[in-house]
């Protein structure tokens, strides 16, 4: 296709050059604006290199509309996580990493990012605390009355899988640093397929990723 367009461009330029020739006499007349313009066009064509003329018939490379999606998808892999440096640690990072560890460490990387999205969405929602730690610890102190079960189920929060915790720390850092939330459609709730909470019927389901169902 490009070769055909290049030939067409060259032919067009040569044709224009031929049409200019009969008007050279008019171009010699400085008082003739039309002749002056023709002379300028002819001079431009003569000065133009063959490569430049050929380039006129070359289509630009198609722009990939999925580039952003591909870049985002690459983050949902253990390969991407392994390539990330040791995350900067602070209180918010610790809270989010622990929540992911106890709530989603058995999920795929994509599922872990999805659970993190819910927590970050709550931070920005007016009905919930405006910090990661505040969201995760909301209701803690009353058994089974909290928002995230691991904080109020009466079981000790012990990290027995340091490798998983380290990987989830990178997920947490990415989310805290502003990774696009493109998985759950703004979800503020989730549950696993093992349970059927009554509140799920009052909300709109936005996604199903791994064993988790997401709602807003």
Descriptive report:
With 216 residues, this protein is mostly helical. The protein has 10 helices and 3 strands; from the N terminus they run H-H-H-H-H-H-H-H-H-H-E-E-E. It has helices spanning 2-20, 24-28, 33-47, 50-55, 67-74, 78-83, 91-104, 109-124, 132-136, 162-176; strands at 189-192, 205-209, 212-215. It has a 3-stranded antiparallel beta sheet with strand order 1-3-2, with helices on one face. A hairpin with a 2-residue loop joins strand 2 and strand 3. Helix 7 (91-104) packs across helix 8 (109-124) and helix 8 crosses helix 10 (162-176). It is globular, with a radius of gyration of 32 Å. The two termini are 49 Å apart. The relative contact order is 0.11. The model is unreliable at 12-27 and 55-66 (pLDDT under 50).
């Amino acid at each position: 296709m490009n070769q055909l367009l290049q030939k067409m461009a060259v032919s067009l330029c040569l044709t224009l050059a031929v049409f200019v020739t009969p008007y050279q006499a008019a171009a010699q007349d400085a008082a003739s604006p039309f002749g002056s313009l023709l002379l300028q066009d002819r001079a431009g064509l003569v000065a133009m290199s063959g490569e430049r003329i050929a380039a006129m018939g070359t289509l630009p490379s198609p722009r990939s509309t999925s580039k952003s999606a591909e870049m985002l998808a690459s983050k949902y892999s253990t390969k991407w996580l392994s390539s990330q440096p040791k995350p900067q640690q602070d209180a918010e990072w610790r809270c989010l990493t622990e929540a992911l560890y106890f709530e989603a460490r058995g999920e795929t990387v994509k599922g872990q990012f999805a659970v993190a999205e819910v927590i970050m969405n709550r931070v920005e929602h007016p009905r919930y605390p405006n910090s990661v730690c505040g969201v995760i610890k909301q209701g803690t102190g009353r058994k089974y009355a909290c928002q995230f079960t691991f904080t109020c189920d009466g079981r000790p929060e012990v990290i027995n899988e340091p490798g998983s915790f380290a990987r989830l720390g990178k997920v947490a850092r990415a989310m805290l640093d502003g990774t696009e939330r493109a998985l759950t459609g703004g979800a503020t709730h989730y549950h696993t397929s093992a349970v059927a909470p009554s509140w799920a019927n009052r909300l709109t389901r936005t996604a199903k990723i791994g064993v988790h169902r997401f709602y807003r």
